[in-house]
Amino acid sequence: xxxxxxxxxxxxxxxxxxxxxxxxxxxxxxxxxxxxxxxxxxxxxxxxxxxxxxxxxxxxxxxxxxxxxxxxxxxxxxxxxxxxxxxxxxxxxxxxxxxxxxxxxxxxxxxxxxxxxxxxxxxxxxxxxxxxxxxxxxxxxxxxxxxxxxxxxxxxxxxxxxxxxxxxxxxxxxxxxxxxxxxxxxxxxxxxxxxxxxxxxxxxxxxxxxxxxxxxxx
Length: 218
Description:
The protein has 218 residues and is α/β, with parallel strands linked by helices. The chain is 32% helix and 19% strand. It has an 8-stranded parallel beta sheet. Strand 7 (171-175), helix 6 and strand 8 (193-196) form a beta-alpha-beta unit. The radius of gyration is 16 Å and the shape is globular.
C-alpha cells in the first residue's frame, strides 16, 4: 500500500495559508497535519482554534490534528468543532489516557496517541486496541527542521508487533525529519502515515515532492 502523506502545515507560509491549502488540495497529499503547540508541553507556540478553523474552510481533505499541549481533555470538543477529523494527544500529557481516548471518540473524531522519542511503545499495551493511530515522534517535538532519530525504525517494528498481537487497526504515523531518503525504510519497517513539513514546504516544487513521497518505492 502507498503511504498516507500528511504535510505539516506548521512549515507552510502562514501569510498565504489559503494558497497553501489549495496547493495541498491539488496535490497527492491525503491529510492536512495540524500541529498545535502551547509553549508548555513543548517549548514553542504554534497556532490554535481560529487558525485551524480558517484552514478547514479551504481544506478538502481530513485534518489530522496533533495536540502538543497539556490538559488536552479541556479542548477536545473545541478542536472537533473547528474541523478536526483525527485528534491525537500525547501519552505524556494524559494521566487518564483511556478517558481522553473515549472523549475523542464520542465527538465522532478518530483518536490517536503520540509518543515522544524517549517513550517506549510498551506503554500502549493496554490501550492499543482502542486507538486509531499512533504517532511516533522521530524528533523531539516543538520545532521543525530537526534531525531524524535513527532509533525510530526499531520502534516502528516494536509497535507493529504490538498492533498485530492485539489485532488493533491502529495506523502508524511518523512525525519529524521525514524525507525522500528515509521514507522507504520507514515504510519497510511498518509505517502507514508520513508527516513531512519543511521537506515539502521548502521544496522548489512542493506538489512534486508530495507526489514523490506518495509513490515512493520500498
